[in-house]
Every structure is written in C-alpha cells, then in structure tokens.
Amino acid sequence: MEVKIGVQHAPREVVLETNETVDEVERQVSEAVQNKGTLSIDDVRGRKILVPGDKIAYVEIGGGVSGQVGFRS
C-alpha cells in the first residue's frame, strides 16, 4: 500500500510502499501526532522512515492505482 506524508517546511512529500494495513498506519500516525512523538514506518524495501509527529502536515493512505493506463467509458 502506498503512503504519502507531507512534512511542514519540506518542498517534497515522503512517498513509500508498506505492507502494513490502513488501520496500522492510521494508528501510528494518530499516536505520533497526539503525543508529539515520532512516526516510524517500515517500507517494503526494508527501510525505516521516521518523521517527527509535530511536523506532519498530512498523510495520504492507500493507492496502488499508479501505473494504470487506458480510457474509461
């Protein structure tokens, strides 16, 4: 699943693929923002992404539709 994280005062968003569920990511984001802690997510490549909770501007969870080509009728 694709996760996009907007970080305050950063020109680009953080984009990653994770095997975690929507509920797991949502819980982790909520905890990091509420407790002003650090959001920690593991991506599918084995990397760990850390974002300060008080610097998170937005989080977009879901996706997997990138790369579709064609027309809808």
TrEMBL record:
Pfam families: DUF3107
Protein name: DUF3107 domain-containing protein
Organism encoding this protein: Nocardioides agariphilus
Source taxonomy: Bacteria, Bacillati, Actinomycetota, Actinomycetes, Propionibacteriales
